[in-house]
């Protein structure tokens, strides 16, 4: 994968699933921003995909 494709994939996932996520909004109300962010990183399947793409992005930047 190249840099541009990875960034486009990250943007697409973020727009499709993360913006307007009701789980994240509710967690922010109930437990705060940090707890909502922790849920996204540790428990959300989309968060896992974003982490994977982030690692791939780091690999492409190391090659250049």
From TrEMBL:
Superkingdom in the source lineage: Bacteria
GO molecular function annotations of the record: zinc ion binding
Keyword set, alphabetical order: Metal-binding, Zinc, Zinc-finger
Record InterPro entries: DUF2602 (IPR019718)
Pfam families named in the record: zf-C2HCIx2C
Protein name: Zinc-finger domain-containing protein
Organism this protein belongs to: Kurthia gibsonii
